[in-house]
Every structure is written in C-alpha cells, then in structure tokens.
Amino acid sequence: MVRWCTASLLSFTLFALASADSFENTAIVRTVELGGSLVQVTTTFAVKALEANSKVYTVALSDAEKQTASWLEARVKGQPNVLEVADRGPDSKFAVPFQHTVSFLIFYSGVHLLDISLPQPLGLNASTNIVLETIQTHATYPWPERASQQDPQGLKYKTDLLVLSPYRTAVQRTKIRSPSPSVHSYTTPENVGDFTLDAPVTKSGATITYGPYNNIAPSANEKFISKHQQPVFIHYDYEYPVLQIPKLKRAAEISHWGANLNIQDDIHLRNAGPALKGHFSRLEHQTQTFYKRSAPHVIPGLTLHLPAGIRNAYYYDLNGNVSTSRLRTAPSVPKNAQANQYSLLELRPRYPIMGGWNYSFTLGWDSPLADSASVDKTTGKYIVQVPVWTPIPASVVNEAEVKIILPEGATDVEFATPFPAVSSAMSTHITYLDTVGRPTITLHFKDLTERHAQPIFVSYNVPLSAHLKKPIAVAVAFFSVFAFALITRRIDLRIHKN
Ligand SMILES: *[C@@H]1O[C@H](CO)[C@@H](O)[C@H](O)[C@H]1NC(C)=O
Ligand SMILES: *[C@@H]1O[C@H](CO)[C@@H](O)[C@H](O)[C@H]1NC(C)=O
Ligand SMILES: *[C@@H]1O[C@H](CO)[C@@H](O)[C@H](O)[C@H]1NC(C)=O
C-alpha cells in the first residue's frame, strides 16, 4: 500500500510538473467591462512554449467564474477563427486514476480546467497571444437592494483578484471598467507583497486596475488559492435598466401549406434592478420622463429588432392586445445574405416596470418560409433555420424552452443546435385538421445572452403523400359539409304532406 502511494504520488507530481512546464505566461491582461445583466470579460494570455510541439494550452476558471460564464470563446489574437475548447470538468485529471488507491490525494481544487487547441503546434520558445472572451451573467446584484424612484441605481460585482493558470506567470493585471465614472467603492487587496511593491490597485476615471503583479507561480491549485486568492468587490452606478427574463417560451411552427414560419414568444420579463422602495408615483415618473431624466431602474419600454419581412405581428399581455406599440417592418431579405435589415418593434407596456417588478407578455409574427428554408440538393431534405431567440438587448434569459413544430408527416427529422442544449426531446403535436400530428422538437437552454441568438438547423423529409394529406383533409371536411347539405335537402322532414 505504501509503495502504491509513493508511486502514485510520484506520478502525480510528475504529471503536474509536466503540465506546468509546457508553457509560460509572459503576460496576462484581463479586462472586465461591467454592465447590468451582462459583464464582458476578455483575458489575453501572451504565452511562450517551453516544449517543442505544444498543442494544447490550458486555462483555469474558478468555480464562480465557470458558473457565471454563459458564453465563452477562445481565439488567437487578431484571427477570426474560434478555437476548440474542451472542458476537463471540475476535477483535475490527475486525481481520477488514483480514485481507489489513494483517496486522500483527491481534494477538490476549486478550479475548472479548459483545454484550448492551438491552430498549429508551437515550437520551443515560440510565442502566441490567446484571447479568451466570456460573457458573464448573474454576476452583479443591486446594491443597495432597495431604491426609491429618485435614487440612482447601484450595482455590485464580485470577482477574484488573480487570474489563475496552471503555468508560471511573469506579469498579470486586471482592468475593471465601470460604465459610469461614479464608482462608490472598490476593494484594496491585502498581502500582495509577494507580487508587487507598488500600490496593489489604482483608479483612473472609470477604470480600476489591479496589478501589475509579477512572478506568479502556477496557481490552479488549492494551495496557491488558499494562500493568495482573494475576492474583489466593485460598487458602481449603472444608468440603464437591468433586464432579466426568468422564462422564455418560443414556439416556431413551420407550415409548407401556407409557406409560413410562425414564431410566438411567451416572455416573462423581470426588472432585476433594486426593488422599488415605497409606492410607485406616476406623477414622479411623468415628471422625470418630461425632463428626460427617467430613473435608470425603471423600464418604460423596449425596442426590439425582429427579422425583416415579417407579417401579422401581435403583442398582447394578460389584459389583451396592447395598442401602444409600434412596428416598422423591413422588406424580406434573401436567405444567408448578410443583411443588416430588421423590423423595429417599440414595445410600450401598460405601465412602467419598476425594480423587482415582473411583466409577462406574448409576442408573435409570421414570416415567409422561403426566408429561412432551403432544400438540400443531394438528399432532397428541407433545411430550416430557427433562431434560438430574438434578443432583448442587454438581457439574460435564465431558462428558455424552444419548440419547433414541423409539418405534418415530416420524417427523418434531424437537428443541430449552435451550442449544447440542456435537454432535447421529440414528440408529436396535433392541431386542427391534422391527421397524424406534427413532429415537434423541444429544446431547453439556460442563461442565454445576445451572443446565443444563433440559428438551430432542422432538416426533414416531407413525402408527397404527407404534402397531400392536408388538402385531402380539407377536401374531406369540405365535401362532408357539402354532402350533408345535399342529403338534408333530399330528406323531407316535413311532418304533413300537402
Ligand atoms: C529557448 O530559450 C532559452 C532561454 O531563453 C534558451 O536558453 C534556449 O537556447 C532557447 N532554445 C531555442 C531552441 O531557441
Ligand atoms: C392590436 O393593436 C394593434 C396596434 O394598435 C392593432 O393594429 C391591431 O389591429 C390590434 N389587434 C387586435 C386583434 O385588436
Ligand atoms: C417576479 O418573478 C420572480 C420569478 O420569476 C418571482 O420570484 C417574484 O416573486 C416575482 N415578483 C413579483 C412582484 O411578482
């Protein structure tokens, strides 16, 4: 047993060393753009390979960072191609092989490792810049938690002082940018004497800079984290509403019969800013609106970009049709054309949505099927694109359900999501005049941002017999009425014959 442990310990150490020795970070710069529901974090790693043929660079995220990173993308600086990122999961891989023999070695390090595949292997001493971009959601919270109608809107953001890495880092810094220069407070880190002799934090305008911190040992391990890592809080003013969509349900119905794609969204919107203190005063609101200094934690309305070429748009809430909205439709654009055309919808709810308030509404429209469908020439299958969602700018969708209802009788259904869904299922949906029902794909997603508004591709066959089913069903229905009328006319229901 002792020999086993020693052997395992040795290989564990070797493994860890090998991993830490393949690269060195010559510099790390992390930039945090604070916002309301969304916070954009861009980290640039200037890396140097310490081994020939280095292909995989590993980044480490803390648990909290992993939890909030709803969108994540890695690139070589200045290049358009997105690099492949493989998630190793919360446990470091060294621990797994020894699970049963030396369980005391298995501690949870509190870091999440992601392997980034470089476009080409780096030679010894070669260097490159890797840019990791994440959009964080649920990373800010209102502070104070309650505000009256005249108060400003303060938010707090929490992050970790140091960017973790399995490799040595020569120098790193973190810049946190507030959207407004009014930063109420920020943390001054302690015990950073190992890394810097200068001021550990500086503020210039709306930017707070932590670092430069020098000579940082490999940090993606529990020992380093417990010794050096510390939380950093920024308290700042945010002048726009904090929009959250706790629940979004989208139903997309494809109809070949009407050459139509109908989209209907049931949106549960929440103002996630500070909860309103005291009563809502419409007079105060009108006064503020009149002087164009509406409180930031009030949502008076929304402006949405809907697709070009839509028809029959509708918008209603629990009380019925909302007439105080305006839609300007743009004409249809050919599919796949890089069009910047969109229809503009200005939504005006019946009442301004104050901090902590919810508002549920339904929004729907029709669009020509030809704008999002095509036929695969080799297989003859239809391919339809349905966007995961239509973004409400600067908002996060906590939970989304997307249902795609295909034409009746569709077969060989396949679909591809632009990023993994939380769950997916197939079922059959039966509506008016359907005979066999429509195949339906139901997908669930969580923490969607504007970056997730990408198409889901669905492909299927519609056999000719299925195409004819609807006309036949309609014809049968029509004919029955006709026949009934014909028969009733022949039957004499009069009681007395003259
Ligand atoms: C790589 O860099 C190290 C240290 O800077 C140097 O000693 C070594 O000769 C370099 N190797 C090559 C192949 O350039
Ligand atoms: C709903 O309101 C819009 C905008 O005023 C109007 O054009 C539309 O006809 C209304 N729809 C219904 C069903 O009343
Ligand atoms: C708003 O919705 C959230 C969940 O979506 C709920 O927890 C909260 O109680 C609701 N607030 C009000 C005022 O109804």
From TrEMBL:
Q: Name one GO molecular function term.
A: transferase activity
Keyword set, alphabetical order: Endoplasmic reticulum, Membrane, Signal, Transferase, Transmembrane, Transmembrane helix
Q: Which Pfam families match?
A: Ribophorin_I
Record function comment: Subunit of the oligosaccharyl transferase (OST) complex that catalyzes the initial transfer of a defined glycan (Glc(3)Man(9)GlcNAc(2) in eukaryotes) from the lipid carrier dolichol-pyrophosphate to an asparagine residue within an Asn-X-Ser/Thr consensus motif in nascent polypeptide chains, the first step in protein N-glycosylation. N-glycosylation occurs cotranslationally and the complex associates with the Sec61 complex at the channel-forming translocon complex that mediates protein translocation across the endoplasmic reticulum (ER). All subunits are required for a maximal enzyme activity.
- What GO CC terms are in its UniProt record? oligosaccharyltransferase complex
What's one GO BP annotation on this UniProt entry? protein N-linked glycosylation via asparagine
Q: What is this protein called?
A: Dolichyl-diphosphooligosaccharide--protein glycosyltransferase subunit 1
Give start-end of the signal peptide. Answer: 1-20
Report membrane topology. Single-pass type I membrane protein
Residues passing through the membrane, by range: 471-488
Q: What protein family is recorded?
A: Belongs to the OST1 family.
Q: Which organism is it from?
A: Mycena venus
Location(s) in or outside the cell: Endoplasmic reticulum membrane
Assembly mode: Component of the oligosaccharyltransferase (OST) complex.
Per its UniProt record, what InterPro entries does this chain match?
A: Ribophorin_I (IPR007676)
Pathway stated in the Swiss-Prot or TrEMBL entry: Protein modification; protein glycosylation
Q: Classify the main location.
A: endoplasmic reticulum
